[in-house]
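Task card 7
Instruction: Convert sequence to structure tokens.
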Amino acid sequence: NPHLYHIFTSEPVLGSIFPFLVVSGDFDFGEILEIYSKIRDNKQHGEKLHNELQVGMIRVCLFKNRTDDALEIFKKLTSDVYNSFNNKGIEPPINVKSYMTMAHLSFIGFCKDIDTADFFFNDAVMESMPYLTPLQLNFIKKYLANTWEMTGNYEKVKRIWLVTWNHYEAKKSSNSSVSSSLNDAFLSIFFKNNPSFSIESFNELKNIIHEYSLIRAIDEPFINVLLSKSTSWHNSEVFEYILNVANSNNFSKTNVFYRCCLKACGSVDVDYQSILTLFRQLLSNNASNGMKYIAHADWVALRDATINSPYLMSFQSVNDRIDLYFKLWKICS
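Output:
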């Protein structure tokens, strides 16, 4: 449609879709660069590229490991913004500075040159830039993953996680959703680095819990992620330790916590009484919140702890677990 051509080929729109076109494989880097260069070269003297297009091209370069090209565009973006407004004798408005913010965060989240990503991360933490640099969670998660992928350095990943948490707590910008997502990203890497149980890995897990507690109070999302991830070790001592940490910290527990506990029981050799106790606690929690029925998710968690456990036949109390499920089903259904 010729009436829509101008809209869909405008610089802001192209800046938004360029990264998706490269990631999807619909366009290769050379094709995107050709379009970008044509727009840039056709500018009249004094005309500037739209900042959205520059941010989009920075991301394209980072996706394709063209870090130097991305840095050149970033330098051009910042100089365009500040030269334009300095000539007017005014400070760039926040909505214009936001393009520099998004470009900065893109280097943190998308740059596979970890030294460069580190530089931008540290600047963001120190808040040393003339524009806002909030540590947005989606970029930090990518930064953690890239750091692990490119360096395999667990201690470096851990430092980023702790620095980020310190920053969030100082800014009072954390919540249960942030806790669940950020801790899931870090603990996924921890268990990749420690795929099986050992005394050393268990001690490091304890150390992680301690260091986390020094920054913020132990919370349910952190414990829930620990319960879910630690099942790969199939170790009842670890399971009991995490439960003790949860019970010794005064946070309000939801039905999600008890479901995570039950699901974890399906991977560790615990006695059926422990499973029954957790199921009763789950029902009690539901009742205290006004629930008058047993939710489907509760039955799923119980089955995961008993008859649906893929490790059922390796447990000492196989028959006890099976009997427990069917007895509870008979009583409660």
